[in-house]
Predict the 3D structure of the following.
Amino acid sequence: MKRRELLASATLAGALPAWAQPAGTMTLPEMDLHDPFIVTDTASKTYWLFTKNHPSFSGEKAIGVMAYRSGDLKHWSKPELVFQLPAGFWANDGCWAPEMHRWRGRWYLFVTVHNESLPLAEPSPVPGQRTYRRSTVLAVADQLDGPFKLVRHGEPVVDKALMTLDGTLYVDPAGKPWMVYSQEWLQLRVGAFAAVQLDDELRAVGPPRLLFRGDASPAAKPQQGQGVIVTDGPQLYRTADGSLHMLWSSWGDDGYFQTISHSPSGNLFGPWEHGPVWLAKGSGHGMLFRTLDARWMLVVHRPFKNARGKLYEVREQADGFELVRQRVDLDLDAAPLLRGTS
């Protein structure tokens, strides 16, 4: 359906769709989003929030990625499409967990796509489930608003026989790039995190190496009565003492949650130590970003379904990160977690 037809339909229903709203008037409770990723552009003093495209919000009927913009983290523009899967591409769904990373002067999009009609040879170890092609692929553009074009025709970063998702860029102390990602529980029963070294063109140059399995964390609980443990959304940060910290999500006693593991040595391959639940009640797939005044902030989505963005002030300590308070003045959450104090 074209924009004109969508607008006519919405007008008859008595409400304008999100993409037809005046710029800068949306707030987080109005923005249906999952796996949010925020980039702070200090040059233009603009926050960019990336998520999977929703046609009812962007006005573009496409499997892709859309971006909201804000100058204050409270008032957001209607989203615009910055990437879409091309016709005839091997994947026909997904665009989950879009991330934007600056590398060698260009912006690289890491995004997870899949096609359930392309089965893998290896069956799922989970009864009643099956494996199919799901991979993190890359796209590139010179500007954050794209348009982003697939790198290497959209070939997966790691072997297409592996169900990989939520790939993120990690640059080690020597300046070498890696992709850290989750390997799907559908293929392993117990999901895991792994890393593959990349060259300067962000092409894999070696086999993947295991970081840890989801059952290494006591907070992650088996699901579905089949021993399934989910691993989602890895994000890596280094603190002043040189230790390395990884935000990630799973399911536990209180639903979807955000947690942090850390490698005291600073080595990507650990050994890793695992912290408690950081945020629960459907909170997860978070990432840390710096605000325009250089403060740390966490963005997560909650609840898991019909998700909305939630913002938390974070304090960096020598050996980790501390949640300070939820910024309800920005996310306007009617049921906040961790009010805290500043």
Q: What stands out?
A: The first helix runs from residue 3 to 13. Helices lie at 3-13, 55-58, 185-188, 328-331. The chain has one domain: 22-331.
